[in-house]
């Protein structure tokens, strides 16, 4: 009986003192903030995977490609340049995630993310190709490089797209239920 009384006293203390840290609830994170975090994490993760693919000779394109338009020095071609490139890709991926959030968040299909990743690949390798001096055109790159790079972009698109869509639809499902 004393155990039941202790439990009751504990519940009453929690209700009586909402200022205690264990009784406080964290404010919910907005969907836009989650999209920003998802974009950064996705950009860093998939560009690190791309760097691994570069190290293992699956692709000739490394994350330091993003630094090539700038006259910085020889360090941009080494390991430091690749890791700085990974962080910059993560920052640019925030923009890609926010674009997805603004336009495509309501779609639940994985195919939307696949198409989004393919569109990002086309944007970088066809439209933005002239700003990268050391990047050959897609038709001049080896087939293995193109396939690996397309797959990484598609996986990034699926990761960002599915994560953002899932979060958005879960939030709306909670709001619609009484």
Task: Describe, in plain words, how this protein is organized in 3D.
The chain is mainly alpha-helical and 178 residues long. The protein is built from five helices and no strands. Helix 2 runs antiparallel to helix 3, helix 2 runs antiparallel to helix 5 and helix 3 crosses helix 5. It is globular, with a radius of gyration of 23 Å. The mean pLDDT is 87.
Please give the number of β-strands. Answer: 0
Q: Which range best describes the helical content: under 10%, 10-25%, 25-40%, 40-55%, 55-70% or over 70%?
A: 55-70%
Give the low-confidence spans.
Answer: none
Largest sheet: none
Strand content: under 5%
What is the average of the pLDDT values?
A: 87
Q: Pairing-aware structural class of the strands and helices?
A: mainly alpha
Q: How large is the count of helical segments?
A: 5
Radius of gyration: 23 Å
C-alpha termini separation: 38 Å
Overall shape: globular
Topology as a string of helices (H) and strands (E): HHHHH
Identify the notable features of this structure and list them briefly.
mainly alpha, 5 helices, 178 residues, 0% strand
């Amino acid at each position: 009986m004393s155990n039941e009384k202790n439990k009751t006293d504990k519940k009453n203390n929690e209700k009586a003192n909402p200022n205690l840290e264990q009784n406080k609830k964290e404010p919910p994170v907005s969907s836009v903030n989650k999209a920003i975090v998802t974009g950064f994490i996705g950009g860093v993760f998939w560009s690190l995977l791309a760097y691994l693919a570069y190290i293992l000779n699956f692709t000739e394109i490394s994350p330091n490609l993003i630094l090539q338009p700038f006259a910085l020095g020889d360090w941009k071609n080494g390991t430091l340049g690749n890791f700085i490139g990974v962080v910059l890709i993560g920052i640019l991926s925030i923009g890609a995630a926010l674009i997805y959030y603004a336009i495509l968040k309501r779609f639940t299909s994985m195919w939307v993310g696949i198409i989004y990743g393919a569109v990002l690949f086309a944007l970088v390798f066809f439209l933005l190709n002239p700003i990268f001096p050391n990047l050959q055109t897609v038709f001049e790159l080896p087939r293995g490089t193109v396939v690996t790079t397309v797959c990484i972009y598609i996986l990034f698109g699926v990761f960002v797209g599915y994560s953002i869509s899932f979060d958005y639809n879960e939030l709306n499902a909670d709001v619609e239920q009484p």
